[in-house]
């Protein structure tokens, strides 16, 4: 099984070395590439722009995230031009959000109207690998029934080459979604997104914002560990490892780790992926 790692840009462009230093050990542990998220506001977009550039110039295989929300086409095209000129050919292409969680999406008056329009544009500009997002447990804007699969199929038709899932905690949620995609002939590899529990309270808050269910067993597993970081860390590694083992047993070829820039936790999980226990032959 292979894996890719997602990281955030640093707090200031002056600190771009931080993302380079963060990425290098992931790659030596076996990560295939590092993806860097794109901020929602103007200043965080600038930080993403320059961090991607610093990573590419340092020779790190980089995927640049890009969103359509709250930006004119000119602004988005500016980021794309900089990156394509530096040799970046891998992108994670998203619609993004432009309001409070749950608020309806409204395209920028001069912007790309949807993820589909942006995917088409990036494909036209010559990107080689275009990852898009998908949601095994549904996105808050899900329009019911199989509309999410129809929409994912439209992303594939627009030029997407794979879909990375929103995080989930039960492997069965992923398997059910992968089967639905196969039945609907979506035609994209569905790469599981794994969110290690670096901090249960923060992960639970984020999951609620994204409409992602937190299973009771996971809440119980982390209960009372707030003041015990070492135990918490071990439980987090074991939880991610058992989810990944189930995916590996089902021949999933790659996972994408949402590192939240937690180097230690991500490296522990990455090593377990790169060096799995050999399977014992049945006697
Ligand atoms: P879309 O897929 O375009 O829309 C979301 C959902 O709404 C669809 O899945 C579908 O169910 C429904 N929908 C929308 N339009 C239609 C339609 N016309 N017909 C039918 N159904 C429709 N955010 C950032 O700001 N920066 C990042 O770097 C970033 N990286 C991410 C990486 C991954 C792997 C994931 C999963 C999410 C990421 N996000 C990021 C969050 C993302 O921007 C939000 O989840 C956003 O709300 C949706 O973006 P999208 O591209 O999935 O939207």
Q: Which small molecules are bound?
A: flavin-adenine dinucleotide
Strand order within the widest beta sheet: 1-2-3-4-5-6-7-8
H/I helix tally: 10
Gross morphology: globular
The H-and-E topology, N to C, reads as EHEHEHEHEHEHEHHHEH
* CATH first level: Alpha Beta
Helicity level: 40-55%
Structural class: alpha/beta
Structure description:
With 283 residues, the chain is an alpha/beta fold. It has one domain (2-276): TIM Barrel (Alpha-Beta Barrel). The chain has 10 helices and 8 strands. An 8-stranded parallel beta barrel has the order 1-2-3-4-5-6-7-8, surrounded by 8 helices. The longest helix has 21 residues, at 229-249. It starts with a strand and ends in a 9-residue tail after the last helix. The mean pLDDT is 95. The structure holds flavin-adenine dinucleotide (FAD). Flavin-adenine dinucleotide binds at residues 37-38, 40, 65, 67, 92, 94-97, 114-115, 133, 135, 139, 141-143, 147-148, 151, 164, 166, 193.
Fold topology:
Elements: E1 2-7, H1 16-29, E2 34-36, H2 42-57, E3 62-67, H3 73-85, E4 90-94, H4 115-124, E5 129-134, H5 147-158, E6 162-167, H6 171-183, E7 189-194, H7 200-210, H8 216-222, H9 229-249, E8 254-258, H10 263-274
Parallel strand pairs: 1-2, 1-8, 2-3, 3-4, 4-5, 5-6, 6-7, 7-8
Helix pairs in contact: 1-2, 1-10, 9-10
